[in-house]
Amino acid sequence: AQSVTQPDIHITVSEGASLELRCNYSYGATPYLFWYVQSPGQGLQLLLKYFSGDTLVQGIKGFEAEFKRSQSSFNLRKPSVHWSDAAEYFCAITRGSQGNLIFGKGTKLSVKP
Amino acid sequence: DAGVTQSPTHLIKTRGQQVTLRCSPKSGHDTVSWYQQALGQGPQFIFQYYEEEERQRGNFPDRFSGHQFPNYSSELNVNALLLGDSALYLCASSRRGGGLYGYTFGSGTRLTVV
Fold it and tell me: CA nearest A31 in B: which residue?
């Protein structure tokens, strides 16, 4: 069965520090890959997505993610975190263009001043 | 350009009651999916509607049902509410083939069952 694992439940970083959020997936082929962000009490906003091609994808708000097929990973990175980045981050996959989203359990990001 | 609109934003129901949640998709989108997000969890797929028919369904009981109208808006109905149905219910709209074009989420309906 397809699944997404986000190993870190909660991460705290200092403002201005770099960030990497981990995501691993289980799927028989290369899925479509997504990162979403959710602020408290809000819906989900798409940060970036990967379908094919260049394995380093750029998203909104200065985020990027790298797809590594050999590791079944799609880690999210940001070189310098801002206090407004504090939120919950979800990695998700779909089985092709028609599939529904399968989410990980999320990583909560706290930012220290 | 209006995004996905969900109503109501919050509601409280008693165990055993029935509830209807509503979703208006983003302009230009024809597919609506519903997700349940329990506290501290990632969203779980309930079902997807396209052309007024249920096209895909997740692992949810028949107490969960839906409908899509000709204007692409959608309703989620839950019968015989259980305490465990308390969650944030998210609606996501897309063009057909949402995995390729991306899904737009609403802010959700917070359902509390007491």
Answer: B99
Q: Which CATH number fits domain B5-113: 3.40.630.10, 2.60.40.10, 3.40.50.300, 3.40.120.10?
A: 2.60.40.10
At A95, the pLDDT band (50, 70, 90 cuts) reads confident
List, for residues B42-95, the tens digit of each pLDDT value: 999 999 999 999 999 999 999 999 999 999 999 999 999 999 999 999 999 998
Asked if B100 is an interface residue toward chain A (Cβ–Cβ < 8 A), one would say yes
Secondary structure element (H or E) that encloses residue B44, with its range = strand B44-50
A80: pLDDT strictly greater than 90: yes
User: Model confidence over B2-25: pLDDT tens digits?
Assistant: 699 999 999 999 999 999 999 999
Please say if the pLDDT value at position B39 is more than 80. Answer: yes
User: What whole-number distance in Å separates Cα of residue B102 and Cα of residue B94?
Assistant: 6
CB pair distance less than 8 Å for B97 and A97: yes
Cβ distance A42 to B108 less than 8 Å, yes or no, reads: yes
Contact, B30 vs B96, CB < 8 A? yes
Name every chain B residue with its beta carbon within 8 A of the beta carbon of A41: 107, 110
Q: Is A25 on the interface with B (CB under 8 A)?
A: no
Q: Are B99 and A90 inside 8 Å of each other by CB?
A: no
